[in-house]
Amino acid sequence: MPSIAFDETFGTAAQTDRDPASRDPFSARSGAAFARSQRTERHPSGEGRGTGIALAGQVLNFAEGREIYGEGQPVRFFYKVMSGMVRTCRFTSDGRRQIDGFHAEGEIFGLETGGEHRLSAEAVNDCCVVAYRWAGLEAFDGGEADTARTVFGFAVTCLKRAQEHALLLGRRSAAQKLATFLLDLASRGCGGPDSPDSSVDLAMTRQDIADYLGLTIETVSRTLSQFERDRLIALPSIRHVVLRNRAALQDLVD
Known about the structure:
The protein is an alpha+beta fold. The protein has two domains: 4-166, Jelly Rolls (Sandwich), CATH 2.60.120; 172-253, Winged helix-like DNA-binding domain superfamily/Winged helix DNA-binding domain (Arc Repressor Mutant, subunit A), CATH 1.10.10.10. Helix content is 33%, strand content 24%. It has a four-stranded antiparallel sheet with strand order 3-10-5-8. The protein has a four-stranded antiparallel sheet with strand order 4-9-6-7. It is globular, with a radius of gyration of 19 Å. 31% of the residues are buried.
């Protein structure tokens, strides 16, 4: 799977499957584009999306299924999702995939301790992210308190979600797991900016959901169908869910 490669000398990111002249989005050759991306990052674009982080960052686009970074690669950047969705995952020794989390628009990922990534990050669908060098964050002299608070807040959120995911995997039934998952996505605005909080767009596949919840794809599909029969949800399409009875879903969780 094509991925971001890390240049040991310059700490840069590069698309490994592109032509050599365009492999390094941080290169001197693309300095003008990099300057434009910095301005876009610091000042919201015409689409009205800012990052909330006062650091120079590079805008990167990934097609569905593309790897952003791989498990075991050096930790040189952290990222913020501008559009689309990203999954972080690992593969077990027997080849099974375990999805650690899904990161929606406006959320940060790649905040890992240690010198190497313990997870891989992949584009769930076509997505746009901003990559920030860790060195830029470490160079703060205290004058960027707002940015430091923003990044710290995301780090705390990531830790909280990791703890909640561990608890989720320990739940007894598939119904509990799936109800928790749907309510969480709805609370994070995954139905789109103009959608009610009862609407959820599933950017991920049923297999993604199964790998995240520790279930089989058959169990995920069967449980969603049962929710629909029980009028807890509606499924206008395979990738869109309407929460018809949030209270009943919450009762399952509790």
